Amino acid sequence: MSRKSPVAAACPCGSGLAYTLCCQPFHGMSAFPPTAEALMRSRYSAFALKHAEYLRFSWHPDTCPESLDLDDEPLKWLGLTIVSTDKGLAGDLEGRVEFVARYKAGGRAGRLAEKSRFVRFDGRWVYLDGEVNA
Ligand SMILES: [Zn+2]
């Protein structure tokens, strides 16, 4: 038996890190993701955890929906794969992240492939919009 403390819950974004060391500080809005990819991951985790407040916080005000109710959301998010990133680093003002997110809805598996655009707003990364690939 290991004498280490119990394994902390893995972060839903699939980073391999514990949630407390990965997306949770961002969800607490006490820290901001340093890159567009980190923001993308934190938003995926927020969808998985139904954290609507954080999703709205990390959404550009111009494109953020009036309301976001995830409580009746039928999707169960199963995993995230980052396909590619373009800019979105510390010195950039915009960035793109292409990803595939897997989900289950009504017993059926599905996948969402999207190219998302992120920009700086108020000095932090926010989600602007995305192009869904069929
Ligand atoms: Zn994470």
From TrEMBL:
Per the record, the similarity remark reads: Belongs to the UPF0225 family.
InterPro entries noted in UniProt: NTF2-like_dom_sf, SEC_C_motif, YchJ-like, YchJ-like_M
Stated name of the protein = UPF0225 protein GCM10011289_07830
**UniProt domain YchJ-like middle NTF2-like: residue ranges:** 35-130
Q: List the taxonomic lineage.
A: Bacteria, Pseudomonadati, Pseudomonadota, Betaproteobacteria, Neisseriales
UniProt-listed PANTHER family: ADENYLATE CYCLASE-ASSOCIATED CAP C-TERMINAL DOMAIN-CONTAINING PROTEIN, UPF0225 PROTEIN SCO1677
The organism named in the record is Paludibacterium paludis
